[in-house]
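Appendix B. One record, verbatim.
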Amino acid sequence: MKTFAELHDKTAPFILPNAWDAASARIFEDAGFPAVATSSAGAAWSLGYADGEAVDASEMIAAIARIARAVRVPVTADIEAGYASDVGGLLETIGAILDAGAVGINLEDWNSHADEPFPIETACARIEAIKTKTGDRLFVNARTDTYLRQLGDSATRFEETARRMRAFAAAGADGVFVPGVADTDTIRALAAASDLPLNVLAGPATPPLATLRELGVARVSVGSGPALRILGLTRAIARGLLDHQNFDFIREKPTLSYDEANALFSP
């Protein structure tokens, strides 16, 4: 079995599914995925909070620990910006993440408390502190939201993104995550801008995996997509129950049987 770091191969990109609880993580593992990520948004919604670091760090870490305990494959945790603006608080989060059983993290450069990106020097200092603490025990996937949030001038957005990618690499990051890009020219240029493996976020306009391989992508995440799909199905069930007073959803496929669901957690 490959280690989590070894899965990041520009010549053979892999799809990394994002779970929001132990059951979804087990389903992804049972399907054959070699690793599972968490979705900060999906997990926050399942815990009763909005996305964007509204959840208390202890609750999110407990959710990550339940996921890591439920599966045997490596788990990487989406910890947003680490639920702390200061380095000391960030390192407390990192220690708890390691104790929870995660082998990797996504770390954003967006400061949700200030509603702006961390200055590049600050973002790099945070990465350096984490790598000093963890070494090779934790795969740090450094995320920049320049494209996702359409930050700055569109004419200089690529250069700013590439600058951050190179700085993150110098600070010790193991990979870089640039959500919000779908056009092939930008993805190709981003993959060539740094030696770090590039992670992109799948969306409606994302090219197929074969194309992403040609562009140099190493990892494809699905983010909150699976959780949103399940929430949409649940809302459809709710409408059927309330508006039509029928139980048709019970007969629809695919629906797991009780025994199938229980077997996911059998010893």
